[in-house]
Amino acid sequence: MKKLPLEIGQELFIRPLGENMPHKAKTQIVGARHGEFIIIDEPAIKISNRLIIPVGEAVLCWFLHEGNVYRFESIIRKSLEERLCILEYPLDFQVESLRRHIRIQVNLETEFKIGFREQIFRGTISDISESGCKLVVDSITIVSRNQRIVLSFMLPDNRIVRDIEGIVRNVLYDRLRMKTEMGIQFKGPESELSKISSFCQFCQYFKV
């Protein structure tokens, strides 16, 4: 059985199977056991300000992970205390890539600044593409989606990318391991983007 890349706190979208209504519910993943079940916050589909209809048993689910959309059909087995539900683990699922550029696995020590503050933080870029990267910080670092970020790091080809500006597109806090993961979209300047583009194209050509 293939394994879904589930993470605690991940947003999950749900709609009833067989329903013609376009309405959907948004919930969060609370926990999971591969091949058995997924625990989520109890979802509800909001029809109006006054009417909220609980999701039925048979559902279509989807979530976004590292530039891919994962879709699967499932059944909500039962409700638990504290407004939680058990979702049946799917036997199969579909994956659709939203990325224009392939991510390359790296391990790059990075210095960065958040917003327009002068404080310097340190982290590690774990994957990179021409359009963005994943930044991992070994602490809980408070940052908001769509916030400005400026990074400096050395590429494996020894070229230095200095003060490249980006936008934080998503944030995941792992309080158990005390880590923060950020998905970042690069914005410029062009001189630094070209260094990254050249490196990524080299890796793709030679299948590094």
What would you note in describing this structure?
- Helices cover 8% and strands 54% of the residues.
- The chain starts with 10 loop residues before the first strand and ends with a helix.
- It has 2 domains: 11-97, Roll (Pnp Oxidase, Chain A); 104-206, predicted glycosyltransferase like domains (Thrombin, subunit H, Beta Barrel).
- With 208 residues, the chain is mainly beta.
- It has one helix spanning 190-206, and strands at 11-16, 25-33, 37-41, 44-46, 52-54, 58-65, 68-80, 84-88, 94-97, 104-114, 121-128, 132-137, 148-154, 160-174, 179-188.
- The model has no long low-confidence stretch (mean pLDDT 86).
Keywords:
Pnp Oxidase, Chain A, 54% strand, six-stranded antiparallel barrel, 15 strands, mainly beta, Thrombin, subunit H
Lay out the secondary structure:
Elements: E1 11-16, E2 25-33, E3 37-41, E4 44-46, E5 52-54, E6 58-65, E7 68-80, E8 84-88, E9 94-97, E10 104-114, E11 121-128, E12 132-137, E13 148-154, E14 160-174, E15 179-188, H1 190-206
Quick check: average pLDDT? 86
The beta-strand count equals 15
Strand content: over 45%
The rounded distance between the terminal residues' Cα atoms is 29 Å
Classification by helices and strands: mainly beta
The radius of gyration computed from the alpha-carbon positions, rounded to a whole number of angstroms, is 20 Å
CATH architecture of the largest domain: Beta Barrel
> What overall form do the CA principal axes indicate?
elongated
